[in-house]
Specification:
16% of the residues lie in helices and 12% in strands. It has a two-stranded antiparallel ribbon. The protein is elongated. It is of the alpha+beta class. The relative contact order is 0.25. A hairpin with a 6-residue loop joins strand 1 and strand 2.
């Protein structure tokens, strides 16, 4: 193992299945976070389980490598 090689794999996907944030169009509502019901950065038409930025950050902390 190279000393500059990452200890564990990192992923930009937070596991929500919502994919990258997409701007909601004019007049389009934002989806609610599935954990706290706050508005997310995702349009209401997004598939998956969208999380607000705070819950997304907390979920990433929980699933991060603690190496």
């Amino acid at each position: 193992m190279d000393e500059h090689e990452p200890y564990c794999e990192t992923s930009t996907d937070s596991g929500t299945g919502a994919g990258p944030a997409a701007e909601a169009g004019p007049g389009e509502a934002f989806a609610e976070c599935v954990l706290c019901r706050e508005p997310t950065e995702y349009p209401a038409s997004v598939k998956g389980a969208p999380l607000c930025p705070v819950c997304e950050w907390r979920e990433a902390e929980r699933s991060a490598c603690s190496g």
